[in-house]
Design brief:
Layout (H helix, E strand, L loop, with lengths): L2 H10 L6 H13 L2 H5 L6 H15 L6 E5 L7 H6 L3 E6 L2 H13 L5 E4 L11 E6 L9 H13 L1 E12 L1 H7 L4 E4 L5 E9 L4 E9 L5 E10 L3 H10 L3 E6 L13 E7 L1
Length: 269
């Protein structure tokens, strides 16, 4: 562990970030929409629609059933579910994103239910057939709190309901040696990510920067996220009550391996 990261984690808590300190970091990252600016610029409409199709296929989702987009933001993927006739509920902690979702669905005359809530307090009255958690929206809590969050989505499902989620594959990142990355964007700018890793807690500390064509930094931000192996995420889901049906290496349903960038898990209530 680098001295800088060690000092930083020391400020945040000896075992893991305290929730108060953690909320300051995560709220800054998401409330400034940095995740949208940094990540979502990478995906086209066609890629979003393809992902939605792949999710529905892995869930074997029945037509006109009810899908909970858990931690779903402004419904970038779940709007495709709605277009196909599924009933959609989006849960997210940020009201601004839910309002954006409402406007987007309204423009297309699509029904939508939104719930503004911490994901650990998912209402058990939702009674969804399926739930989705997309784009690595886990790893922001210690294990006990993550289990609490998973258990709340478990309770929001009908008996036999399915939950699909993805997260980064720690094994893949080990192979990559947590190298710094530079990626050219569609708008001509470049995303730069510099990483440090806390091996005592499997916490990735990332520094993000967006630079323009003249290599001038336009925006910068930092972020923390806990990473998992397949066994880790299975353990957490199982402790929440889910029966694991399948583990994949991506949404195409390919087998999980050391070189899979993602872990995609389907659990059943």
């Amino acid at each position: 562990m680098s001295n800088r990261l060690g000092d930083k984690l020391g400020e945040l808590g000896s075992t893991y970030m305290t929730m108060e300190k953690y909320q300051d970091i995560i709220e800054n990252f998401f409330e400034n929409n940095f995740d949208e600016k940094f990540y979502c610029s990478q995906y086209s409409e066609e890629e979003n629609e393809e992902l939605a199709e792949d999710v529905l296929k892995l869930l074997d989702a029945k037509k006109e059933s009810h899908i909970l987009d858990w931690c779903g933001g402004w419904g970038r993927i779940s709007i495709y579910f709605a277009r196909k006739g599924y009933k959609v509920t989006i849960l997210d902690r940020m009201q601004e994103r839910l309002l954006r979702a409402k406007e987007m669905f309204k423009l297309e005359h699509l029904p939508l239910t939104t719930i503004c809530s911490d994901c650990r307090n998912t209402p058990d009255t939702i009674d969804a057939d399926y739930a989705t958690c997309l784009f690595c929206s886990v790893g922001f809590f210690d294990d006990d709190e993550q289990i609490k969050a998973f258990r709340s989505v478990y309770n929001s499902l009908k008996k036999g309901g399915k939950f699909i989620l993805d997260c980064l594959n720690l094994f893949f990142l080990v192979n990559k040696k947590f190298e710094d990355t530079k990626m050219k964007r569609r708008d001509g700018k470049t995303n730069i990510q510099r990483n440090e890793f806390d091996f005592s807690n499997n916490i990735l500390h990332s520094y993000y920067k967006i630079v323009n064509e003249k290599w001038k930094a336009e925006e910068e931000c930092e972020f923390f996220q806990k990473l998992y192996t397949p066994a880790d995420i299975v353990r957490l889901l199982s402790a929440s009550g889910f029966k694991i049906e399948n583990i994949y290496g991506n949404y195409k349903g390919e087998p999980i391996s050391f070189i899979s960038t993602q872990i995609v898990v389907v659990g059943r209530k």
